[in-house]
Amino acid sequence: MGKFLIRRTLLGLLTLFLVSVVVFVATQALPGNAARAILGRDATPQRLAALTEQLHLNRSVFDQYTHWLSGILTGNLGTSAATQEPVSQLLSGRILDSAFLVLVAAVIAIPLSIGFGVWMAMRRDKAVDVVGSTISLIFAALPEFVIGIILALVFATQVFHVLPAVSLIPPGDHAWQHPNVVILPAATLILAVTPYISRIMRGSMIEVLESDYVTMARLKGLPERTVIWRHAVPNAIVPAIQVSALQLAWMAGGVVVVEFVFSYPGVGAALVDAVGNRDVPTVQALVLIIAAVYVVLNVLADLATIMVTPRLRTAGQ
Amino acid sequence: MSATSVVDVKALRIVLTESGADIVDEIGITVLAGHVLGLVGESGSGKTTVGMALMGYCRPGGKVSGGEVVIDGSDLAGMRDAELRKLRGGVVAYVPQDPGTALNPALRIGTQLSETLEAHGRLGESEREQRLRETLEEVALPPEPEFRRRYPHQLSGGQQQRVAIAMAFACRPHVIVCDEPTTGLDVTTQARVLETVKALCAIHEVAAVYVSHDLAVVAELADRVAVMYAGRIVESGTRDQLFSAPRHPYTRRLLRAVPDLAGKRAVVGIPGRAPQPGHRPAGCFFEPRCALAEDRCREAFPPVSELGAGHAVRCYRAADTAGALAPDGASAPPATKVGDPVLTIESLDARYGSKPTLFDIQLRVGREECVALVGESGSGKTTLARCVAGLHKEYTGDIRLGDTVLAHSARRRTTDARRQIQYVFQNPYASLNPRRTVGQTIARQLQLFFPGARRDVGRRVVECLERVSLPETAINRFPDQLSGGERQRVAIARALAAEPAVLVCDEVTSALDVSVQAAIIDLLRDLRGQMGLSILFITHNLALIRTIADRVCVMTGGRIVETGAVTGVFDSPAAEYTRQLLANTPSIEAALGHVAVRAD
Amino acid sequence: MTTDVAIAPAAPVPAPTVLRQHQWLQTLRAALRLSRTKIGLAIVTVMVLIALIGPLVSPHTPTEFVGAPNAGPSSQALFGTDTLGRDVFSRFLHGGLSVFGLALAATAVGVVLGVFIGLTAAYAGGAVDEVLMRTADVFLAFPQIVFALLLVSALGPKVWLIIVTVGITHAPRVARVMRGAALQVVERDFVKAAEAVGEKRTRILFTELLPNVSSPLMVEIGLRLTYSIGLVAGISFLGLGLQPPHADWGLMINENRLDLTIQPWSVLLPVLAIALLTVGTNLVTDGIARAAIGIDRE
């Protein structure tokens, strides 16, 4: 297992490296005058000069890349083209707020959806299952910004005026100091993610309940409780764990739209702002961070899969 | 030995929940303590359904609709869930067909063993530990706790099955239901597992019901035998009665279809198919395929006739089937004059990745000769066959077709070389493209190898089908509309459409019922003569070799340990491994203590 | 010679229908028998009709001013006016075309690319598989919308860019699924049989592999279309897709959401439209998935 971990981590690092290349090429290495292309209509001579200076566009592409990458690796995320402040300063608070949001959503969504999945599987084809599956289907289809707007419509404006439609946090404070503002964004993420996990859990539970070893457990005369919790669930939960980790990774990107809907001061909203402002250094840094989180969570997902599958865990023994 | 029947089944009827069509009906079974009942039948006969009913269990889709199952004096029909749970595992235990899937991959085998004892808990903790050790020793597995910490995937197939047997016997049940537990095991392992089961049943005075399609195994194990056909028991009696003097026409034909290890009897198949639930006629179900059928056989299913001494049969013509099976002529395939070598393999060493799998293989197949390649799983026989077909290219050494050395990969061989060597796969359910009709599959083969004759294709496809006794209507069928035997015929027809010199048959009958297997063997024998084919016949079934092969190569661990004429090798094996293989192969004749058996 | 054949005489084998030839057609027919597919199809048809025919029957143009900003429903404006005073209903009728059209194009790009990559990787195996999948991993590291934003930051909001980025980010996801499905087929004996007789590789890909993965393919197409609609509308919602004064459902939601409390219709109509469209496509996809399972089990 240790060997696998090393191999997987190296692969992850390689992927990250290639990701940085893609990020760089997509923003700076395009043919033509990059600065002019980026600024477009906003290209005043001063801004052109400033951007050229910032991105070192007068040097060779390779130089630019190495300069940028070495900066990232030493913690210097560049200077924002919009505010002229160091990007790392802009983002540090926001990263924590986004992380808090995702954590809250994950901690609620994962156990909830696994529970739902098991419940629906055990009541297969009965009312609970049919209604639950249909609702899952609907929420799985809806784009997350639609879910967010509908939640805002219902709870913050038209129907109930209970929750804030906009997540206003005084500057300097953090999200956990104002839990009210986290509720709707977290609920949006939870509703977006739960259908996938619970559906996989349900499907896997149904398959496991039809398996030979569960039949065998029943033929041994074991109490039904033992059959479900000792025999069925440990096997059924494996795909659900994989999907949970992947959904967690998805949330790294899902925050972008959700934060924008509620003006939640996290990295997602920052990214949308930066793109709007053509603030390339900030965009580069943010995309790299989000992609890195994604890659790390994927490696953890693989690891988790191995841990819960004895066949893979003991390979080689 | 007690004379009370532990298992008493009367008029059991199980139907499909949806349609109400009967799966099995009028089932009557009695088993005494310490006795083994062999429940024999081909696929679809309902034998597994009956076996499971003894545990009060029906597979989803079926339900018990009549009759009674009495175990140890209690009728299962009246039992509530809690009582059934106490019965299962505690009074009636089950040994599954495939321990690989029946053991939970996420739990250590120690857990799976001890939970049975806990569930039927009459023992304290130290007593449970003691019982576990005893049981493990009885099945020849290490009793130490370290072994029990393993997961199922860390055990071999044979070890897994022993764990399953230990799980079954741990609670000292009164009845054991074994559902073809040696399917998929090597002959040697199978022999040991059967010994274990037999010994344990005797020691603990367990009544055993052994469900199987393998008549030879049943002959070695059972005291009494019941033969099932299309959901009914058509004949039952002691082992000697059933195997030496069978009275039901189906039983008689079935015995003729089982290959004889001693080679004294030819195999004959049974034409037609058994009727499925819902499509069973009003009269005797076997009537459409029976040579002795009369008008009254079509009117009503024959009632049970007692023939005395516990031998019962359901046939109107039972009086005319008395007497041993009639003698037969030679069983060996007609001796052919062996021609020049068509296929030569010289000094072949093969690997799989970095692992060497074949060592120094020398083999020669002459014109119109059938060479059998026999070995257990892992012996390398399939790898060798794939090398010959060009599907496995990691090897050194030469494979020659006539005088020309062949390229390792089929893609690199000449079209003619590819045409001359044709491969028939083991699994008829996987070797045909499910999205193409039979006609399209064969036509494609003709197109590939005879591109000139475009206009003729329709006629030639019909010819190919006729060769394997398939009617013209098969052309528009898809593979999933055909039976296993029919699909295998299509696969053979496809291979022969190319008019090859060499036919490589890779376990082509392993997935088929005995009666169907016999028919396919017949077909191959006839075609060999008609088309001047050389056949490389790969199998693990020794008895089967007698029916078709001229020479045999015995393989183990990637090497050929013995090669020679079939009669020579089987009658006086030179290699120790061959001797063991022959000794461990179950055979009806050996079980009955007969040396020579005459056949219908 | 004995025979085990019973095709002609007694066997109850159903007569083959021509449609059996194409499994995907058979799956679609089975899917259409399910009520969920019918409902989904009805919803999608209605929404697509609105998108296509809307512009032709709209009472006003999407850009003309018909009243005071954020006014309620009136005789001039069925659902009131938006934040600039334009007719909400007219803008709504014009706004579906861009969403649906772009989503369709992006799906096509993504699926074609993804199928090709996935099948090739599964069949070729070895180094080709490794390289293709590692490259796919790199693109998979970007959440779809993040990748789109990345390119927009450099190239600006352009219509073709939306199609390209959404399509490119679909491709590795589709490739993964199709590769998984194809791997199961590649090992089956009939593919080996084709190789043994020396069929060309491209031919095997199209005639042996592809027809046997038609079920997961159809499900993927449905899923990708559903996600495309969400992504395309989402990008416009962020203000980084279609630009004002263009009428687009996603853009409309963004433009009017600050006035949610005063004039809900300007947000509600496009939100409901997108919701219905995606739910519809997902119902159809689910119907196909269930039909496929039923058929594969036979």
Explain how this protein is built.
- The complex is a heterotrimer of chains A (317), B (600) and C (298).
- Chain A has 317 residues and is mainly α.
- Helix content of chain A is 76%, strand content 0%.
- Chain A has 13 helices and no strands.
- In chain A, helix 1 runs antiparallel to helix 12 (280-308) and helix 10 packs parallel to helix 11 (267-276).
- Chain B is α/β, with parallel strands linked by helices.
- Chain B is 34% helix and 23% strand.
- The longest helix of chain B is centred in the N-terminal third of the chain and has 18 residues, at 187-204.
- Chain B is globular.
- Chain C has helices at 23-32, 35-57, 88-94, 96-124, 126-140, 144-155, 159-186, 189-196, 201-212, 214-237, 249-256, 265-296.
- In chain C, helix 4 packs across helix 10.
- The longest helix of chain C is centred in the last third of the chain and has 32 residues, at 265-296.
- The radius of gyration of chain C is 24 Å and the shape is elongated.
- The chains are: A mainly alpha (317), B alpha/beta (600), C mainly alpha (298).
- Chain B binds chain C through residues 268-273, 276, 279, 288, 389-391, 410-411, 413, 415, 418-419, 422-423, 425-427, 430-435, 437, 445, 448-449, 469-471, 473-474, 476-478, 480-483, 485-486, 489, 494, 498, 515-516, 518-520, 522-523, 526, and chain C through 1-8, 10-14, 16, 20-21, 23, 188-190, 192-193, 195-199, 208, 211-212, 298.
Which helices and strands occur, and which strands form pairs?
The complex is a heterotrimer of chains A (317), B (600) and C (298).
Chain A lengths: L1 H26 L6 H6 L5 H10 L6 H13 L13 H36 L4 H15 L2 H14 L22 H30 L2 H8 L4 H39 L4 H10 L3 H29 L1 H4 L4
Chain B lengths: L4 E12 L5 E11 L3 E5 L6 H7 L8 E10 L2 E2 L5 H10 L1 E4 L3 H4 L6 H11 L5 H14 L6 H4 L8 H13 L5 E5 L7 H18 L2 E6 L2 H7 L2 E6 L2 E7 H6 L4 H9 L37 H5 L5 E2 L5 E2 L27 E12 L2 E12 L3 E5 L6 H9 L5 E7 L2 E2 L9 H6 E4 L13 H12 L7 H11 L16 H14 L4 E5 L7 H18 L2 E6 L2 H7 L2 E6 L2 E7 H6 L4 H9 L3 H5 L8
Parallel strand pairs in B: 3-8, 3-9, 6-7, 7-8, 15-20, 15-21, 18-19, 19-20
Antiparallel strand pairs in B: 1-2, 1-4, 4-5, 9-10, 10-12, 11-12, 13-14, 13-16, 16-17, 21-22
Chain C lengths: L22 H10 L2 H23 L30 H7 L1 H29 L1 H15 L3 H12 L3 H28 L2 H8 L4 H12 L1 H24 L11 H8 L8 H32 L2
